[in-house]
Design goal:
Helix 1 (7-28) crosses helix 2 (37-50) and helix 3 (118-137) packs antiparallel against helix 5. By secondary structure, this protein is an alpha+beta fold. It contains 5 helices and 15 strands. It has one domain (7-248): Creatinase/methionine aminopeptidase superfamily (Creatine Amidinohydrolase, Alpha-Beta Complex), CATH 3.90.230.10. The structure holds 2-amino-4-trifluoromethylsulfanyl-butyric acid (MF3) and cobalt (II) ion (2 copies).
Length: 252
């Protein structure tokens, strides 16, 4: 069941989303070669708590940290660690979800560590562009798969990239993960009519090879990696469907 949020729920989700965005920007400002992903986790955690909110990932299904940090061939759900040190040339996704007054906001972005390869730079730029194109296509009266999956797939496939299928965007706001499951490739499963007041994330995970397959780390039960070791990038926004288009809630 896809919820239509009320005006007061929308205000609450907008406020949480703004805090998630502010947290992401603040945390990303510490990115440099030589720091650990646990350092980023600590910065995000303290910032969220200082703003009277809760980091949604912490203890979510047993997840042990307050953000996800996903480096290079890690697609998503990377667990911050003191032993994991950023190095020049890496790309790192930081994914922040906040709970403020009971409302959820969810956003992520992929950043370079120092100077990165032109392949990595293009992957980051194109992944972000695919999200922006999808956002521009969302509007009440459109179909979800035609505004999101089809737009992202048509833009990215010619580059020889692939779009992860096993994980997707999701309704969000009153809970971390609500209906609908948002595919980032075109599929009839997402032939859903968009209505004003729907809130969901769009968060394409894009592999720099034609292989969209992934696997989950057997030891930690979380970290998702590309099957073939290729780089993967991701950007995520929480958006509100309106009659005139999409409002990006995770925008400062
Ligand atoms: N923030 C992720 C998403 O975009 C979910 C992370 S779940 C966690 O849906 F448990 F790993 F935090
Ligand atoms: Co999400
Ligand atoms: Co997220």
């Amino acid at each position: 069941m896809i919820l239509i949020k009320t005006p007061s729920q929308i205000d609450g989700i907008r406020a949480s989303s703004k805090l998630a965005t502010a947290t992401l920007k603040y945390t990303a400002s510490f990115i440099k070669s030589g720091i650990s992903t646990e350092f980023l986790n600590q910065k995000a955690h303290d910032y969220i708590i200082a703003h009277k909110a809760i980091p949604a990932p912490l203890n979510y299904g047993g997840f042990p940290k307050s953000i996800c940090t996903s480096i290079n061939n890690v697609v998503c759900h990377g667990i911050p660690s003191k032993k994991e040190i950023l190095k020049e040339g890496d790309i790192v996704n930081i994914d922040v979800t906040t709970i403020l007054n009971g409302y959820y906001g969810d956003t992520s972005a992929t950043y370079p560590v120092g100077k990165i390869s032109s392949e990595a730079k293009l992957l980051i730029e194109r992944t972000k562009k695919s999200l922006d194109l999808a956002i521009k296509s969302v509007k009440a009266g459109q179909y979800l798969n035609e505004s999101v999956g089809r737009v992202i797939e048509n833009y990215l496939t010619p580059f020889g990239y692939s779009i992860v299928r096993d994980l997707g965007g999701h309704g969000v706001g009153l809970k971390f993960h609500e209906d609908p499951f948002v595919f980032h490739h075109n599929t009839p499963e997402n032939h859903i009519l968009l209505k004003a007041g729907m809130i969901f994330t769009i968060e394409p995970m894009v592999n720099a090879s034609p292989n969209w397959h992934i696997y989950q780390d057997k030891n930690d039960g979380w970290t998702i990696q590309t099957e073939d070791g290729s780089l993967s990038a991701q950007f995520e926004h929480t958006i509100l469907v309106t009659d005139s288009g999409a409002e990006v809630l995770t925008k400062l």
